[in-house]
Design goal:
The structure is a homodimer. Chain A is built from 8 helices and 6 strands, in the order H-H-H-E-E-H-E-H-E-H-E-H-E-H. By secondary structure, chain A is an alpha/beta fold. Chain A folds into 2 domains: about 5-55, RecR Domain 1 (Helicase, Ruva Protein, domain 3, Orthogonal Bundle); about 55-204, Dna Topoisomerase Vi A Subunit, Chain: A, domain 2. In chain A, helix 1 (about 5-15) crosses helix 2. The longest helix of chain A is centred in the first third of the chain and has 15 residues, at about 40-55. The radius of gyration of chain A is 22 Å and the shape is globular. At the A-B interface, helix 1, helix 2, helix 3, strand 2 and helix 5 of A face helix 1, helix 2, helix 3, strand 2 and helix 5 of B.
Chain lengths: ~200, ~200
């Protein structure tokens, strides 16, 4: 509308940087913000400013938090004998939502992907080896994604930890709970068949 | 993840205020921001801060801009004899993108909607009457949305301006360019039929 860049255009351009937000959505958000209740923009500005200033990787597990070590690493009630290795901080959130896991985490911040030029040295692995040194940890659960990169990372970890004397396991693959078999993808169905268990047997 | 609200949770909550952004999308944006290039968060914070500090309604047309009057109202090359009355600042953007209109705008900031308790006194109408006072304006194009509220507002404006001595017109309704007739909605098709024009006649 103006001849040069104006605050509205600048805000649209800034919000367009966000993933999944195109020109139209950014404009819709900006005009919504211009009519939003008085404290809305300051609340967002303050939250983003805090995010940038206060959030750092935990020196123990690499998860992103405001405390160091993070609340989970500092929590003595968590089982120190089991570490779940995940690709991303979001995965820690997912496990905590599920509420089934009482051990500790280690965040790799990625997965091995030769095509993207990401090798083991790009992952948060050194601190993992440090954590295994004193013999407390008995099991490392590799909870990487069930895809090519996650598989490569799991295989690498299994080899890396073979001599450390910990049990290395991986999350079970199969059909998701709630999936109709008709619509299950072929690979998951194959995995579910391959890893089938006796009914009334070892849990389930 | 933490026992109390932490910066990540706070940022997720702040972004969830935005329309169309739910818990999952907000979390995705926050974790993306935590890994984004260094200047990303400051750029967004700065843009939102400017948006709040610098953008105000134009005293002439009511459009939201950083200058007062806005660039369009201050532009002597725009035809001062025609005013397009729109509901929202975004509608001005849409007209300017189309590039067909060379007149001026007036932004109502809403439309009459008794069900939502929005009456004529809630719209930016007083300054519109001021603009018509000196006789420069010869036509008011009512460019409200083709819906119940837009129709009610158009009707109200036509009556309000009946004695002012300006021509009051409304945007043509019909089927959108590119629409396949098979999929056109019934009301637009009805309007298109009702307002049909001779081929090679008055334009089109």
């Amino acid at each position: 509308m103006a001849d040069g860049p104006d605050p509205i255009e600048a805000a649209v351009r800034a919000l367009r940087r966000l993933p999944g937000i195109g020109e139209k959505t950014a404009a819709r958000l900006v005009y919504w913000l211009l009519r939003a209740p008085d404290g809305t923009i300051p609340a967002i500005v303050d939250a983003l400013t805090r995010l940038r200033a206060e959030v750092h990787p935990c020196r123990v597990c690499g998860d992103l938090t405001a405390t160091n070590p993070c609340a989970l690493c500092a929590d003595g009630r968590r089982d120190a004998r089991v570490i779940a290795v995940v690709e991303r901080p979001q995965d820690v959130r997912a496990f905590e939502r599920a509420g089934e896991f009482r051990g500790r985490y280690h965040v790799l911040h990625g997965a091995i992907s030769p095509l993207d030029g990401i090798g083991p040295s790009d992952l948060n692995l050194r601190t993992l080896l440090d954590r295994l040194r004193d013999g407390t940890v008995q099991e490392v659960i590799v909870a990487t994604d069930p895809d090519v990169e996650g598989d490569a990372t799991a295989l690498y970890l299994a080899r890396l930890l073979a001599d450390v004397g910990v049990r290395v396991t991986r999350l079970a693959h199969g059909i998701s709970v709630g999936t109709e078999i008709e619509y299950a993808d072929a690979i998951s169905l194959g995995q579910a068949l391959h890893h089938r268990r006796p009914i009334g047997g070892d849990g389930g």
